[in-house]
TrEMBL record:
<protein>
    <recommendedName>
        <fullName>catechol O-methyltransferase</fullName>
        <ecNumber>2.1.1.6</ecNumber>
    </recommendedName>
</protein>
<dbReference type="GO" id="GO:0032259">
    <property type="term" value="P:methylation"/>
</dbReference>
<keyword id="KW-0808">Transferase</keyword>
<comment type="similarity">
    <text>Belongs to the class I-like SAM-binding methyltransferase superfamily. Cation-dependent O-methyltransferase family.</text>
</comment>
<keyword id="KW-0531">Neurotransmitter degradation</keyword>
<keyword id="KW-0128">Catecholamine metabolism</keyword>
<dbReference type="InterPro" id="IPR002935">
    <property type="entry name" value="SAM_O-MeTrfase"/>
</dbReference>
<dbReference type="InterPro" id="IPR029063">
    <property type="entry name" value="SAM-dependent_MTases_sf"/>
</dbReference>
<keyword id="KW-0949">S-adenosyl-L-methionine</keyword>
<dbReference type="GO" id="GO:0042417">
    <property type="term" value="P:dopamine metabolic process"/>
</dbReference>
<dbReference type="GO" id="GO:0032502">
    <property type="term" value="P:developmental process"/>
</dbReference>
<dbReference type="Pfam" id="PF01596">
    <property type="entry name" value="Methyltransf_3"/>
</dbReference>
<dbReference type="GO" id="GO:0016206">
    <property type="term" value="F:catechol O-methyltransferase activity"/>
</dbReference>
<keyword id="KW-0489">Methyltransferase</keyword>
<dbReference type="GO" id="GO:0042424">
    <property type="term" value="P:catecholamine catabolic process"/>
</dbReference>
Length: 206
């Protein structure tokens, strides 16, 4: 994937990095990026929220990191959490190739350990936007952790990938039944396939 970016994308041009990855994953080797179909929904929710402090759980190779960071207003920041050092190393290079390294802080480690440290380490008061795309059995745990750490504020938008495929049933049940969230489903398809998948957008009501 990284080679495809270096070969086919233009340095400093995030859109060309996104297109190079999508082309590679559609034609050469599938990979678990949010992809271009769900990516358009991510773009529109992001543009609507226009966050100054954004969090991504699950960097993987940095595809959605680039999609998010390219739409941030000047001075806004994205913190992205990655557990696997090999993925983090690739993501750093892809983020840098897109020229977005100044907007992105990639933190390596398990989300459960890092979330409670984000305030003291990065001076984050709270997040306006959270993109959940890491281990599906961590979505609910980490959402509750973000609540408990006071990192969500009234109006914070959580956007969760893969709520249908592979699926995050407990998370969905929670955000759809809790009085603290206003939740809605954006139907789409699993990246680079015709299978159904979708994004769940949940607004924290405080
Ligand atoms: O399993 C999926 N995603 C798991 C992602 C996990 C990523 O999150 C990181 N992480 C970061 C911090 C942690 O604490 C834990 C993991 C892991 O190191 C990995 O980089 C998935 C699967 C399919 N699929 O079709 O099968 C489609 C998708 O869109 C998916 O997202
Ligand atoms: Mg995903």
């Amino acid at each position: 994937m990284l080679k495809a970016v270096q070969k086919n994308a233009t340095k400093g041009d995030p859109q060309s990095v996104i297109s190079a990855i999508d082309h590679y994953c559609r034609n050469k080797e599938w990979a678990m990026n949010v992809g271009d179909d769900k990516g358009l929904i991510l773009d529109s929710v992001l543009t609507e929220v226009n966050p100054s402090a954004a969090l991504e759980l699950g960097t993987y190779c940095g595809y959605s990191t680039v999609r998010i960071a390219r739409l941030l207003s000047p001075g806004s920041k994205l913190i992205t959490v990655e557990f696997n050092p090999a993925f983090a190393a690739v993501a750093r290079q892809i983020i840098a190739y897109a020229g977005l390294q100044d907007k992105v802080t990639l933190v390596e480690g398990p989300s459960g350990d890092l979330i409670p440290k984000l305030r003291e380490r990065f001076g984050v008061k709270s997040f306006d936007f959270v993109f959940l795309d890491h281990w599906k059995d961590r979505y609910l745990l980490d959402t509750k952790l973000l609540e408990d750490c006071g990192l969500l504020q009234k109006g914070t938008v959580l956007l969760a990938d893969n709520v249908i495929c592979p699926g995050t049933p407990e998370y969905l049940k929670y955000v759809r039944s809790s009085p603290r969230y206003e939740s809605r489903y954006y139907k789409s398809n699993l990246e680079y396939t015709k299978l159904e998948d979708g994004l769940e957008k949940s607004v924290f009501l405080g």
